[in-house]
Amino acid sequence: MDGNRTPQGASVQEQIRHLDEALALSRVGGDMDLLREVVELFLDDYPSALEKLRSAVSAHDPSGVEHQAHSLKGSVSTFGAQEAFEAALVLEKQGRSGDLTGVEESLRNLENVFEALLPELAALQNK
Questions:
Q1: Interval 95-115: pLDDT, tens
Q2: pLDDT tens digits for 58-100?
Q3: 30 contacts 22 by C-beta, under 8 angstroms
Q4: Which residues contact 7 (CB under 8 A, 6 or more apart)?
Q5: Which terminus, N or C, of the chain has the lesser number of Cβ atoms within 10 Å?
Q6: DSSP-derived 3-state class of residue 11
Q7: Nearest-5° angle of CA 33, CA 72, CA 67?
């Protein structure tokens, strides 16, 4: 994808970390084992949460979009995953406002951000 390349030729993914490991570690009191457990719980639960969000988007259910996006936003905030947090926040606000114009695009953005975040979470879990 040329849109993911910088002028220097390095991919954006190589330059930007999608989570803040130091922040994530600080949120669990510096306990790496606990952080691994939190990551494992997220990796186990997020597919179901994302599917519920997809269903709410498909059903044009503003309350469901708001609730599911809020839940995902809270989960990724633990990891200092600002891009994922902001993508979920956009969906949460769309649901809260009741105006789901462009919500499918917002969902695709969240899915893409999660796709970039997951390898970092898996690497963190294996530390």
A1: 999 999 999 999 999 999 999
A2: 999 999 999 999 999 999 999 999 999 999 999 999 999 999 9
A3: no
A4: none
A5: N
A6: strand
A7: 140
Residue-wise over 36-57: b if at least 16 C-beta within 10 A, else e?
eebbeebeeebeeebebbbebb
Please give the single-letter amino acid code of residue 72.
Answer: L
Q: Which amino acid is at 89?
A: L
Q: Are 114 and 46 in contact (CB under 8 A)?
A: yes
Residues 89, 110: Cα–Cα separation, whole Å? 10
Instruction: Give the residue carrying structure tokens 């803040």.
Output: 20
Cα–Cα distance, 86 to 126 (Å, whole number)? 26
Residues 6+ apart with CB under 8 A from 60: 100
Q: Which residues pair with 5 in a beta bridge?
A: 11
Q: How far apart are CA 86 and CA 14, in angstroms?
A: 20
pTM: 0.83
